[in-house]
User: Fold Single-stranded DNA-binding protein from Psychroflexus salarius.
Amino acid sequence: MSTLKNSVQLMGHLGQDPEVVNLDSGKKLVKFSLATNDYYTKKDGEKVTSTDWHNIVAWGKTADIIEKYVTKGREVIVRGKLSSRSYETKEGDKRYITEVVCDEVVMTAQKG
Assistant:
């Protein structure tokens, strides 16, 4: 491996309709959460579903596509990169967040 790359691909369902933010600069941002499921069987034979929630953000043309075609419950594949950042709340507390910055979205045949 000559280069290492920050690359993420997730397939899951939207937890809510995307939140659209139109910035003063004219740029568009969409944010949504994506649920992915993992299935396994415990030693006693009980089948378990484990759900993880991922924060997804998209900009520009990708944001336009998501705003127009993607809604709550829709199954999608998102491709992008992991991004971690921090911010300060109004109370002065520092918070950390990890998001997937989506640069490609594929809508599957399933609509949720």
Q: What stands out?
A: The chain has a mean pLDDT of 93. The longest strand covers residues 28-41. Strands lie at 8-14, 19-22, 28-41, 47-59, 75-88, 94-107.
